[in-house]
Design a protein that fits this description.
The chain is an alpha+beta fold and 217 residues long. It has 2 domains: 169 residues, Galactose-binding domain-like (Jelly Rolls, Sandwich), CATH 2.60.120.260; 32 residues. The strands form 2 sheets. Strands 1, 2, 3, 5, 8, 9 and 11 form a 7-stranded mixed beta sheet that branches. The N terminus is likely disordered.
Length: 217
C-alpha cells in the first residue's frame, strides 16, 4: 500500500509542478519542438514603420502558463535601435526598446545578440540598461514583465514583432527565436489525482467500490 501511495504522490507532484516544453523557429536557439523556419527574418534598418511579425501556434501544453523565457538570436544591424514585443491574445509585453539608448544616448551599439529574456535575471540585469558595443549574449530581464502572461492558456498563437527605430548598421536578421514554457494542468485533473491518492491510502478502491454498490441498492 505504501508503494501505491508513493506512486500517487509522485504523480501528483509532477502534475502540480507543471509541464515544460521548448518551441523554436529558425536556428541558434536550442532544441525542442521545431516550428519551422523564420518567416520574416529581416529587421529593416532605421524604419520603425516597417514591423515584421513571426508567429508560433503551440499545442499539447497544460491549460495555464506559470512561467516562461524567450530566446532571441539576431545578427547584424545595431542593437540600440531594436524594438521588440511579444503578443498572445489581448496581452502584449515589450521585450526591448532601444537597448541602452536612454542610458547614454548611444546604447548597445554591437551588431547582433543571442540572449535569453526572463523575469528576475541577475546575470546582466535589464536589457534596457545594456550599453555594450559587442554581440550580446547571456540572460537579461526583458523591458516589460513576462509574468503578465501568467495564467493564460499557452495553447494558442504567440507573435513576435520587431522594428528598427534608429538608422545605421544596416538591416538586422532574426536567425531564430524560442519560447521555453512551463504550464500547469487543468485543476480538475489535479483534483482527480488527489482523490485517487486518498482512496488508495484509505485502503482503497475496493472500499469505495463496496460503498458505491451499497448506495445503489
Amino acid at each position: 500500500m505504501k508503494k501505491k501511495i508513493l506512486v500517487g504522490l509522485v504523480l501528483l507532484g509532477s502534475l502540480t509542478a507543471g509541464q515544460a516544453a521548448l518551441y523554436f523557429q529558425g536556428t541558434g536557439v536550442g532544441s525542442g519542438a521545431d516550428m519551422g523556419a523564420v518567416a520574416n527574418p529581416t529587421i529593416v534598418d532605421g524604419n520603425p514603420a516597417i514591423v515584421v511579425a513571426n508567429t508560433m501556434t503551440l499545442s499539447g501544453l497544460g491549460s495555464s502558463l506559470s512561467s516562461f523565457t524567450v530566446t532571441l538570436n539576431i545578427s547584424g544591424g545595431y542593437n540600440n535601435g531594436i524594438y521588440a514585443y511579444l503578443v498572445n491574445g489581448a496581452t502584449t509585453v515589450t521585450l526591448m526598446n532601444q537597448p541602452g539608448y536612454a542610458a547614454n544616448g548611444f546604447g548597445a551599439t554591437g551588431a547582433g545578440m543571442n540572449i535569453t529574456l526572463q523575469d528576475g535575471s541577475t546575470e546582466h540585469g535589464s536589457i534596457q540598461s545594456e550599453i555594450s558595443g559587442s554581440v550580446l549574449s547571456g540572460t537579461y530581464n526583458a523591458a516589460g514583465n513576462l509574468s503578465d502572461f501568467n495564467g493564460i492558456n499557452p495553447n494558442s498563437s504567440w507573435t513576435l514583432y520587431f522594428s528598427d527605430t534608429l538608422a545605421g548598421g544596416g538591416d538586422a536578421t532574426l536567425n531564430g527565436w524560442s519560447l521555453d514554457i512551463t504550464a500547469v494542468p487543468e485543476p480538475v485533473n489535479v483534483a482527480l489525482v488527489v482523490f485517487a491518492v486518498v482512496l488508495v491510502s484509505a485502503g482503497g478502491i475496493r472500499r469505495y467500490s463496496r460503498m458505491s454498490k451499497a448506495a445503489a441498492i
